[in-house]
Write a structure and sequence with these properties.
Elements: H1 2-9, H2 28-41, H3 53-69, E1 79-86, H4 89-96, E2 102-104, E3 109-114, H5 119-127, E4 134-136, E5 141-145, H6 152-160, H7 181-193, E6 203-213, E7 219-237, E8 240-243
Antiparallel strand pairs: 1-7, 2-3, 3-6, 4-5, 5-7, 6-7, 7-8
Length: 245
């Protein structure tokens, strides 16, 4: 009996941690229950209908389109980005069944978490598009969904040091334009007040239902797929990548 307790006490904490949501459990039974809940979440419910393969493919194409719409050339669009797209619960399950990690009954919200070295390839498989998270521009620029934590420091610096960073090599400045000292001072003051709190390098994809009613309690509802991710940029010279954000 003593040996059993000792073994439990010396069990490494990392074996009791969910690698996706980083939730830590005191006992193996807690982690086992967590995994069972995740498995149950990915089971088709009676309220969800199975879509034909063509409909799932079209949903994937729609998601890729809206993600790429957020991959812009200008440095102002680098950082945390959110996308919300109208979609049914069945569409969400048709695409992301097997990858749903959380469900919040009160709000009726599902959530998938993608992070780590295999996150991009996993989503490429799900969305059936190898280029789902990248867009190329002139002047060797590549704008992409950031899923590599090694680039997080350069992204953080782009938030904190906007006023001190070197001119954007992708934007030509007018040498005859006089700087607006008042705007520069306001920008510096706002940056001093803003405290940067780095977020995990990951992409969150979920589904939620919104219900609205009028004064006569006549309700209307709709489902939405939401995507939260980080956008970054690089310059590409003969397959050599140079971080610019």
């Amino acid at each position: 009996m003593t040996d059993f307790k000792t073994k439990n006490k010396t069990l490494p904490c990392k074996t009791l941690e969910c690698k996706l949501c980083n939730k830590i459990y005191k006992r193996p039974s807690g982690l086992k229950k967590h995994k069972k809940i995740i498995k149950d979440l990915n089971t088709i419910k009676p309220s969800i209908y199975i879509l034909p393969e063509k409909a799932i493919e079209e949903t994937c194409q729609m998601l890729v389109y809206h993600i790429k719409e957020k991959l812009k050339q200008n440095s102002r669009h680098v950082g945390n980005v959110s996308v919300t797209i109208g979609g049914t619960e069945s569409q969400f399950f048709g695409v992301f069944k097997g990858y749903i990690h959380n469900y919040f009954p009160k709000s009726g919200t599902y959530k998938c978490i993608f992070k780590g070295a295999d996150a991009y390839s996993t989503l490429a498989h799900i969305l059936k598009d190898e280029n789902w998270g990248v867009k190329y521009f002139l002047q060797h620029q590549k704008t992409f969904v950031l899923l590599n934590s090694n680039n997080q420091n350069s992204l953080q610096e782009s938030y904190l040091n906007k006023e001190n960073q070197e001119p954007d090599p992708l934007q030509e400045l007018d040498p005859l334009q006089e700087p607006d000292q008042l705007n520069i001072q306001k920008s510096r003051n706002s940056l001093k007040k803003k405290i940067y709190r780095p977020k995990p390098v990951q992409i969150i994809i979920g589904w939620k239902k919104k219900i609205k009613s009028d004064v006569y309690n006549i309700t209307s509802s709709a489902g939405f797929i939401f995507i939260n991710f980080i956008v970054s940029r690089t310059k590409v010279y003969n397959s050599v990548y140079v971080d610019i954000e």
